[in-house]
Amino acid sequence: MVEAKLERDTTSFEAGIIACGSCEQWQQALALFREMCDSNMQPSVSGFNVAIGAVKASGQWPQAMWLLREMSITKVESDVISFAGTMHACEKCGQWQHALALLRDLVEGKLEPDVISYCIALSACNKGGEWQHAVALLRQMCEYNLELDAMSQTITMSTCVRWGQWQQAALLFDELRDSRIELNTVAYGLGVNVCKQSGQWLQALLLLRDVQESRLELDITTYISAVSACQKGGQWQHALSVLMDSREAELDIELNSYSAGIIACQKGGQWRQALLLLRDLLEDNVEPDIICCGAGVSACEWAGQGRQALALLGLMAACSRLRHHVGS
Predict the structure, then answer these.
(1) PPR repeats: which residues (predicted)?
(2) Integer distance in angstroms from the first to the last C-alpha of the chain?
(3) How far is CA 48 from CA 22, 132, 158, 187, in A?
(4) Is residue 253 a contact partner of residue 284, using CB atoms and an 8 Å limit?
(5) Confidence band of 3 (pLDDT split at 50, 70, 90)
(6) Nearest 5°: phi and psi at 52?
(7) pLDDT confidence of 123, banded at 50, 70, 90?
């Protein structure tokens, strides 16, 4: 009977800690945890883990680190969940050094790290701009015979893309495509972005076709990258085709998409197409900016269409006055 009551009371404390954590009331969660300790109830690994989860939800990484240290002091054996929760708290606050140190402790200890632990560390590297560490962690996962998944690969690719390491990102994407891992929308989007940055417009279009055939839902960002890749490659016809595809997909087309298409038309000497895109832009209730209007003006000027160029300049002036009126 006594043992049953002890278990019930411990469970009640843990439930309360979880409830506080879900409401981001980490101070109350820690108060409950300390009350549980003061009630002569030795917290189990489960109790410590729910407390770590509660402070993690609020980004209180010092408190999570303290709880992990307390587990060692009180002779409660931590598990992978304990480390992963503390790492996640550090990751949320950009403490990539602490996150990597915890992963190292996990690897060097008796516990076996899992894919989730590595993904948390990879995300911490992403926020901290540590793309070299991210790539090294991905290789380390292979050394420990952990099965790479789409998440670990895309986080590493995203880190390289975010910090301008396009060649490394392209290498990772090639490895991902050669593997048996099924590519998701994020992976395809990163692949198209890499193609844009490296000037491979044809490869960007092929990837776009692959993802369309796979029936994955593409977001507008991937279409923008493909349009920009075509624009950089001087392929105005393909840029317009991708824009048409995005409209048929009923996506909310952003200004960047139109700007890339208009610039592509400008470079290709297609002033009529540039004006048509500007018309479509206005019909979609997208406010033109100086970049797309300027590209349209240049396209008209190069083609000797002075009247059209003056009309666009008038549109730019009207938009400027409207913005000033709305902002005042």
Answers:
(1) 9-43, 79-113, 114-148
(2) 73
(3) 16, 33, 33, 36
(4) yes
(5) very low
(6) -60, -40
(7) very high
Angle separating helix axes 220-232 and 201-213, nearest 10 degrees: 150
Question: Does residue 6 surpass a pLDDT of 50?
Answer: no
- CA pair distance 305, 295, nearest whole angstrom: 13
- pLDDT tens, residue by residue, 154-187: 999 999 999 999 999 999 999 998 988 888 899 9
Separation in Å, CA 100 to CA 88, 104, 146: 11, 6, 17
Instruction: Give start and end residues of each alpha helix (H) in the chain.
Output: 2-22, 26-38, 45-57, 61-73, 80-92, 96-108, 115-128, 131-143, 150-162, 166-178, 185-197, 201-213, 220-232, 236-248, 255-267, 271-283, 290-302, 306-327
The per-residue pLDDT for range 65-85, each reduced to its tens digit, is: 999 999 999 999 999 999 999
Rg, the chain, Cα only: 27
Q: Which residues of 196-208 are buried (b: 16+ CB within 10 A; e: fewer)?
A: bbbebbebbbebb
Q: What six digits make up the tokens of 29?
A: 């969660």
Burial-class residue 56 by CB neighbours within 10 Å (0-12, 13-18, 19+).
buried
The pLDDT tens digits for 223-232 are 999 999 999 9
Q: Which two tokens stand for residue 53?
A: 């989860």
CA distance 183 to 174: 11
| Average pLDDT of the segment spanning 198-216 | 90
HSE value, Cβ hemisphere, 13 Å, CA-based, for 305:
18
Q: Is 5 helix (H, G, I), strand (E, B) or coil?
A: helix
The two structure tokens encoding residue 133: 């560490």
> Closest Cα to residue 287, out of 323, 311, 252, 262?
323
